[in-house]
Design brief:
Blueprint: H1 7-13, H2 17-29, E1 43-45, E2 52-54, E3 60-61, H3 76-88, H4 95-102, H5 106-120, E4 132-140, E5 165-172, E6 177-181, H6 187-197, E7 203-207, E8 220-224, H7 239-256, H8 264-276, H9 282-291, H10 299-303
Parallel strand pairs: 4-7, 7-8
Antiparallel strand pairs: 1-2, 2-3, 4-5, 5-6
The structure holds zinc ion.
Zinc ion binds near residues 40, 54, 56, 57 and 59.
Length: about 300
């Protein structure tokens, strides 16, 4: 395995397309190439080391067929730099900045970032969250206060979903995080998400917002009171999830300026991926995202 703990080391380790392709092969196939068309394991290798042919369906393929890197003329070395930047920049990176850093158009950089966010939506963090779990919701978008008074929608500040998209965050303290775009903040919606993601018997902490109240039947439930007159147990708080949300909002305002509600899930995938791999080294974060790059998404699917 290649070692690289900085962008300069990464670009030295993968200074040619051939080296990048070798690394992708290693991560994707572990020395056992298979056919991306039919899944068959007996394949022939051509001498150039790039082209393969399936013994069963007879189709030819390269190691990038069936990955998010196919159907684009972007060199793998630029994809690799982009992966490094997206997983290691604490607040993410804008398409404008990425375009400058890797020398592409902004449209290409936008496309790269969206494909990488798709890959960040990993299934490898799927075990239920357990022990002490903090749950909270936030609202993204719809900056009402920037609108003119006559264009403001009534009752849109705070917990209203008229112009904002609700996001539910669930985090295991000292563990992993999940964040979901949700259709509404009704008891039913929230309860379903929590049950799908939190282990039975876990100790959960939420504020006193009504949709959380029924969760006490399934979990040990501690409430945080936002009223300052009430005694609050020191370890009963939702600071972890609130911290994640404020970081997320700072990224959206500072880096992306604005995000369309239809892309919120992708930004959540990117942010939770970074959070969940924060203890990893630069190269293992990189390899983890690279492992997830075998899903394919077209430009059409992205903009629709
Ligand atoms: Zn095949």
């Amino acid at each position: 395995m290649k070692k690289f703990n900085s962008l300069i080391e990464l670009t030295k380790a993968f200074d040619t397309e051939e080296k990048a392709l070798e690394h992708l092969k290693e991560i994707r196939w572990h020395g056992k190439p298979y056919c991306p068309h039919c899944g068959h394991k007996k394949v022939y290798t051509f001498k150039d080391g790039k082209l393969y042919k399936c013994a069963k369906c007879r189709k030819k393929f390269t190691p990038i067929v069936g990955t998010i890197f196919s159907d684009s003329k972007i060199p793998l070395t630029k994809w690799f730099m982009s992966i490094y930047l997206i997983v290691n920049h604490k607040k993410g990176i804008s398409s404008l900045q990425l375009a400058k850093d890797i020398g592409t158009t902004q449209k290409t950089a936008w496309f790269i970032l969206h494909r990488l966010r798709h890959a960040a939506n990993t299934k490898s963090f799927n075990e239920p969250l357990d022990n002490t779990v903090e749950i909270d919701e936030t609202y993204i978008g719809g900056k009402e206060r920037f609108k003119h008074a006559n264009k403001k929608t009534e009752n849109t500040q705070g917990r209203s979903t008229k112009t904002k998209t609700p996001v539910l965050g669930i985090v295991e303290r000292d563990g992993r995080i999940r964040a979901f775009k949700i259709a509404d903040v009704q008891t039913e919606t929230i309860t379903k998400k929590v049950r799908e993601n939190v282990a039975k018997g876990a100790r959960i902490m939420t504020d006193e917002y009504k949709p959380y109240r029924k969760l006490g039947k399934m979990y040990k439930h501690d409430f945080i009171s936002h009223s300052k007159f009430q005694y609050v147990n020191e370890d009963c708080h939702t600071n972890t999830i609130e911290g994640f949300f404020s970081q997320l909002k700072r990224s959206i305002v500072g880096i992306y300026h604005f995000i369309s509600p239809k892309y919120i899930e992708q930004y959540l995938a990117e942010s939770t991926f970074r959070y969940n791999t924060k203890e990893e080294t630069g190269e293992s974060r990189f390899d983890l995202l690279l492992t997830n790059c075998s899903g394919r998404i077209t430009y059409k699917q992205l903009i629709n």
